[in-house]
């Protein structure tokens, strides 16, 4: 999986306008992990109330995303917690509701479930249940997620749909270093609890020129990565790489023009961009790594058929993980890879 | 008198101030006891906030050089068992070295050693009975070996081949075997611990001479599951043994970032169960504590906690590089402790040498035999096919549900067209799957 990606150019043109860059010339080559650390550094520097914590965070984190921050900002602000995800989540809510900007790390998204109660019943409903007397908006959970080639059941899951199903939470998944830095800073500064899922397979392999300055990328705003006329493909995170490879194959093999949308914020998502595109192309594929049934693709497909029914020339197609746990040795068969997307493009276009 | 006869009939011995509740037509069981201690409070004029008790000491039989310092427990293990313990620990150690290297060579995708903690798994498994149900964490391969889960079976699991009991679905070191009464390892931390409370309860109410034994680290003991598990087991009187391997580190997090109280043992006492702290590198201490603990669990119908103090000599896993956080400054903290916690293998070997139960040349011979066996097992495992692709869809439920049957068909259709893009040959019946 990793090798496939290494032979393909995923670089984006820098969107100076969206990023509102003051110094678009001042760039530095960084991988996704380094941009996360950079965004966290900026968050600590620009907001003295920011604190960063989680399991093994002090020495730099198991993925090295908090490297150097403890040395720079001290142990009161960048610290290890005892090993308890529900503890981390509850503690984070307490911090955020009492004046701190809380940035919590859950070491793997697969391990977020002990924190589910605190996130879903507490963080998500803090503002609503108190009549806006209290809120924990200054709260961000970062967590590495997604397939990695050898992670099996418990180091591979993409749990975004569970959280997208909870009113009061914002769920974000970046696709690249530039996106990660701007989206993470927006998430940290947004006044609602945000879950920020980082595609961990990209930590080292996604590398590009990243603006050095402090910039934000708006939440709840999708991005059209590539314009096209015949078919819209919607995805997020690592899966966009499979989409880009599939589209390259399809456009080379036969006469088709695909539009690719990066949803970026999973929920609440940018309906306008999605619906406009599907109305234009009349055909749509949604693809994600998580299991197909009840995945976020189902929500998108339902919304699209509701709002674009008369524009549709084919059923909205989902290319997703199977409804099984994430299996180690069968990962290549499990994943909705570029060949499955390619086949879906062919069938949808021919429909 | 009535109470006493009930106690006797149910082969139950209570502590001095525990009595049965009387009532018509009631099934009397361990939970019908009233612990009058709970309802008894004494009063004082002193306003004293207490933050500590005397620190619990580590029970040990052997010192760090393998000298017997506690003759009462020396004779508890027969010579044959001692030799088997030593051989198993040596085997574990060689397996750890070879498997760890195999990961570096990409022959397996991941590994976790028990370097420095060989006594915990082996000694505890020897101290309980083979039909006791183990709920492991992930660093108890020694217990698997003790029960006869072979090196070959480990290698099959580590390579995720067709002979892996887990059908290649889980990461390496996630062993498990129904035959050996060891529940399959799960990556999420501490989830197994309350499960052991439930199993221990089931063993009591079904009147079995069987206990549930669960292992976990001092890091896992910070999880909410740990606290529920202990409280449930104590109040519901589960036949459960909680075995904490306190090896001082949870990945990079040292104990002083993990807890501020007296380790894990004190929590056992707080939840109301007999608790002991042992020298985790002294296999005599571990064996004896587990044996005695098991007797108490069965006799008194309540759980026991054992905290074994040791030190994680190796990295957390092959994904970890512990020199990053165990630098010179950090290591100063442990200097004193480590001089007292020498390798459990070294300690047992010294003891056996003094007793003449092994000869100086034996150890080398055991190591060589173990090394060859591990290498052969790994080679054999690497030569096998991966499990059948069908197994991706099996066991999600007891039968393959219609929606999964559909998805299996979709995959077959896909592989008919794109089969050459996947390594079908490496899977058992891979090509046949695609063309069926």
From TrEMBL, chain A:
- Catalytic activity field: N(6)-[(R)-lipoyl]-L-lysyl-[protein] + 3-methyl-2-oxobutanoate + H(+) = N(6)-[(R)-S(8)-2-methylpropanoyldihydrolipoyl]-L-lysyl-[protein] + CO2
EC number(s) reported in the record: 1.2.4.4
Kindly state one GO CC term assigned in the UniProt record.
Answer: mitochondrial matrix
Pfam family membership, one: Transket_pyr
The scientific name of the source species is Stylonychia lemnae
UniProt subcellular location: Mitochondrion matrix
Record GO terms (molecular function): branched-chain 2-oxo acid dehydrogenase activity
Keyword Transmembrane helix attached: no
Q: Which InterPro entries match?
A: THDP-binding (IPR029061), Transketo_C/PFOR_II (IPR009014), Transketolase-like_Pyr-bd (IPR005475), Transketolase_C (IPR033248)
**What is this protein's record name?**
3-methyl-2-oxobutanoate dehydrogenase (2-methylpropanoyl-transferring)
CDD domains given in the database record? TPP_PYR_E1-PDHc-beta_like (cd07036)
**Which cofactor names does the annotation list?**
thiamine diphosphate
GO terms classed as biological process: branched-chain amino acid catabolic process; response to nutrient
UniProtKB/TrEMBL annotation, chain B:
List the CDD domains. Answer: TPP_E1_PDC_ADC_BCADC (cd02000)
Q: What reaction gets catalysed by this protein? A: N(6)-[(R)-lipoyl]-L-lysyl-[protein] + 3-methyl-2-oxobutanoate + H(+) = N(6)-[(R)-S(8)-2-methylpropanoyldihydrolipoyl]-L-lysyl-[protein] + CO2
Q: Please state every residue range assigned to the domain named Dehydrogenase E1 component.
A: 87-389
Q: Which domain of life is it from?
A: Eukaryota
Return the InterPro entries for the record.
Alpha-ketoacid_DH_E1_comp, DH_E1, THDP-binding
Q: What is its EC number?
A: 1.2.4.4
Q: Which cofactor does it need?
A: thiamine diphosphate
Function recorded in the entry:
The branched-chain alpha-keto dehydrogenase complex catalyzes the overall conversion of alpha-keto acids to acyl-CoA and CO(2). It contains multiple copies of three enzymatic components: branched-chain alpha-keto acid decarboxylase (E1), lipoamide acyltransferase (E2) and lipoamide dehydrogenase (E3).
| Protein's recorded name | 2-oxoisovalerate dehydrogenase subunit alpha
UniProt keyword list: Oxidoreductase, Thiamine pyrophosphate
